[in-house]
């Protein structure tokens, strides 16, 4: 991202500028978009599915100074900005009239100049447009402070470490895709960005291909394999449980403590949950050899 940002800075992008980002989903495109922020600019999220007229309206309404798009959308963008005075046009690949940012990857990242955000409460990070249910779409502003606050608030709901793999099948220029991808990356997870228009079958294939690789749970001198515990619990309690996930929680005394999160079958939701939890602990104790180490999560 610093190399991309250095390239943008070399071409005059700076604080106060707004970049209309009109891109397909991809890892490189996501990095190029965030590099605009690294360079000090704000980004305006303009979905790649929009028409020329819609692109024109949003970049004019948000007072964009630059555009970042891909070669496939370059012609549409050229027409959309024809009546606008833009400071710069960038594309992720070769496109007539656009500066290709692909060459930025060859720059020395040491040439990047870090930009200090003077007032995070007031500095705009991004602008995303509503669907226009009541009248024309309206720009929703997110500041640097607001984005970080949202991330902190949502932290308990997201992937927790580098062993997690998050599949995002939403447009990265939609509020949900932009937020989920960014937060997951910042928390250390691996993110799989699905292309736009991904089918249900393709989603299923991606889930199988990039399934989460679970870490070994190291409880004192015992190594516990999550998959084995999951299989054991499902076999022994198939009458009550439909799904189970076993993972390790940090523990001062044991290093890792196995934890089980279970999904009860409908008919079992009225049973004695405390009794069921004790039975599961007793069963797992045979394998883990540390009955007190299994923490049960309802």
Automatic annotation (TrEMBL):
Keywords: Membrane, Peroxisome, Transmembrane, Transmembrane helix. InterPro entries: AMP-bd_C_sf, AMP-binding_CS, AMP-dep_synth/lig_dom. It comes from the Eukaryota. GO terms for cellular component: peroxisome. GO terms for molecular function: CoA-ligase activity. Residues 2-211 form the AMP-dependent synthetase/ligase domain. It is found in: Peroxisome. The keyword Transmembrane applies. Pfam families: AMP-binding. This is AMP-dependent synthetase/ligase domain-containing protein. The lineage of its organism: Eukaryota, Metazoa, Ecdysozoa, Arthropoda, Chelicerata.
């Amino acid at each position: 991202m610093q190399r991309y940002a250095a390239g943008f800075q070399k071409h005059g992008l700076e604080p106060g500028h707004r970049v209309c980002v009109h891109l397909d989903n991809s890892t490189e495109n996501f990095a190029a978009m965030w590099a605009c922020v690294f360079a000090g600019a704000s980004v305006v999220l303009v979905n790649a599915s929009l028409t020329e007229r819609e692109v024109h309206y949003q970049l004019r309404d948000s007072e964009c100074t630059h555009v970042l798009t891909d070669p496939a959308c370059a012609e549409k963008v050229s027409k959309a900005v024809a009546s606008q005075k833009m400071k710069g046009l960038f594309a992720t690949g070769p496109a007539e009239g656009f500066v290709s940012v692909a060459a930025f990857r060859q720059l020395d990242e040491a040439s990047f100049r870090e930009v200090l955000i003077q007032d995070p409460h007031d500095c705009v990070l991004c602008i995303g447009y509503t669907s226009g249910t009541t009248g024309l779409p309206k720009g929703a502003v997110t500041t640097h402070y607001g984005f970080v606050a949202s991330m902190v608030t949502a932290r308990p709901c997201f992937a927790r470490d580098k062993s997690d793999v998050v599949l995002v099948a939403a447009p990265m220029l939609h509020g949900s895709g932009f937020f989920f991808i960014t937060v997951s990356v910042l928390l250390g997870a691996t993110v799989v960005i699905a292309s736009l228009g991904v089918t249900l079958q393709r989603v299923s294939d991606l889930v199988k291909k990039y399934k989460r690789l679970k870490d070994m749970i190291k409880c004192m001198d015992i190594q516990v394999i999550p998959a084995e515990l999951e299989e054991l619990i499902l076999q022994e309690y198939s009458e009550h449980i439909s799904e189970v996930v076993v993972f390790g929680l940090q523990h001062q005394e044991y290093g890792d403590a196995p934890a089980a999160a279970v999904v009860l079958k409908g008919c079992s939701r009225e049973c004695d949950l405390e009794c069921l939890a004790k039975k599961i602990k007793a069963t797992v104790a045979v394998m883990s050899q540390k009955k007190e180490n299994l923490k049960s999560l309802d």
